[in-house]
Structures are given as C-alpha cells and as structure tokens.
Specification:
34% of the residues lie in helices and 28% in strands. With 242 residues, the chain is α/β, with parallel strands linked by helices. It folds into two domains: 141 residues, Periplasmic binding protein-like II (D-Maltodextrin-Binding Protein, domain 2); 94 residues, D-Maltodextrin-Binding Protein, domain 2 (3-Layer(aba) Sandwich), CATH 3.40.190. The chain has a seven-stranded mixed β-sheet, sandwiched between helices. A five-stranded mixed β-sheet has the order 11-10-12-9-13, with helices on both faces. Helix 2 packs across helix 9.
Length: 242
C-alpha cells in the first residue's frame, strides 16, 4: 500500500500508505502526524511520469523508502522546478527534492544526505573545437542550462554567454541538437534520459565533466522545528534506501 498522493497542475492521484500505522495511532489515542508535503519536478530519471501515469524515479524511490521506514505519510507535489523551490521557501510545502547544495537555500532549509548521484557535464557536438575548460569558452561559446537550476545560476553569476534556458532537460537537449546553443550544461543522468527518450545518439556529442554534484532533499527549518529529530531519522535511513 502507498501513503502518498501525487499532485501537479495537470492531474492529482491519491494512494493510501501506512494504513496499519495510522489505525494503530487512532486506536491508541496517539494523534497521527500530518503528512510530509514535498515538492519536486518532472525530471527523468529522478522522478517522471511513466506510460501508466505513475510518477517514479531513482530519487522518488529513495524518498518513498525513507519516509515509509520512518512511518510517515507524505504527499509529493509536482511543479515546474523554480516554483517547487519557491513553495518550499515560503513554507507552502515542507520541503523539496532533488537538489544540489546551495548556500542560499541553507538559510531557510536544511539539506539531507545525498539521495542520488549527479555530475554536471558539458555537452557539445562531436566536431566542436570549443573547450569548456578553457578561459576563452565563457566569451566565445553560446551556452544553455535548465531554467531554475543551480547550473544556470552558476553560469549567469560567472558571466557565461547564456543564450538558452528552457524549462526542461528535454527542451535543453533539443536546443543543442538544433544549434540554438554551442554547448549545454546538464545533469548527466537527466540528459542521458532525454537522449534515450528522443532517440539522440550520445556518440554524436562530446561530454566534459564540470563538477560532481550529488542531489539532496531539503526540508524547511520551520517544519523541522515542529518535527524534532526528523532530519536525523531521515539521514539514518538513506544508506539502506539507496
């Protein structure tokens, strides 16, 4: 059984989880904890809608596993990535995932241990003469990254010539294929999933690793203050769930 419901601007599906635990609490007079509300976005392979419209992925499975082992019911709400983060910052949801460590986020939230692996990788046409690791790349290359991502914010902060910032990794890859950018900076697993989905041969592109940036879940400090010990319990279960 499942103790979650999925919510998006497109559709809502509900499932029940931990029914036995909820029944036990009710029978014993112990008030059941409120469901943990966590926001995310549609990004394969971390979390995406499958052919049968189930929402699943490597990060989703870790989150499910951890929360179920904690005996917590939860809801996962699917939004565009920038909005998911804003909702968490405002306290409209309790947290969001999966995301890299960013100092600005740590002002109002706490990050869990790593729930999924990710490398930031430059993708260029195989015959491109550009070198992403050279100083001249910033000024000579037209680059793109996923809107709302730390990758895009880093590129803009370091004055790269950003000409393309679509809402999804699928559109980011399409832009590279169609020549809208000379290179894109993406998460390795997400771009690999987009290539598979679109039938793009990865051998047509050169890949240069920029950084190793694992992904985490963030929970708002207000939520954590109301749930003492939550993060310690969450982190303790990550290794066995990965």
């Amino acid at each position: 059984m499942s103790g979650r419901y999925w919510k998006s601007s497109m559709r809502v599906s509900t499932r029940l989880l931990c029914g036995a635990a909820a029944w036990f609490m009710a029978a014993s007079g112990v008030p059941a904890a409120q469901p943990v509300r966590i926001a995310t976005h549609d990004q394969a392979p971390y979390g995406t809608y499958l052919a049968d419209r189930r929402f699943d992925g490597v990060a989703v499975r870790v989150m499910e596993c951890v929360l179920q082992r904690m005996g917590r019911t939860y809801s996962v709400e699917v939004y565009p990535w920038e909005r998911a983060q804003k909702l968490a910052e405002k306290g409209d949801v309790d947290g969001f995932f999966p995301a890299t460590i960013k100092p600005e986020r740590l002002v109002w939230a706490e990050a869990s241990g790593a729930i999924a692996d990710q490398k930031w990788v430059w993708y260029l046409p195989l015959d491109s003469k550009l070198d992403p690791l050279s100083p001249a790349f910033k000024t000579t290359a037209r680059v793109g990254a996923h809107f709302g991502s730390n990758r895009l914010k880093m590129l803009e902060a370091e004055n790269y010539n950003v000409v393309f910032k679509p809402q999804t990794d699928e559109l980011l890859l399409t832009g590279l294929v169609r020549g809208r950018a000379d290179a894109i900076l993406g998460g390795n697993l997400a771009v690999a999933a987009a290539m598979k989905e679109q039938g793009v041969d990865p051998k047509r592109y050169r890949m240069v690793v920029a950084q190793d940036n694992p992904l985490h879940a963030y929970f708002g400090r207000q939520f954590l203050a109301a749930n003492p010990g939550f993060m310690k319990q969450f982190d303790a279960r990550i290794p066995s769930c990965r």
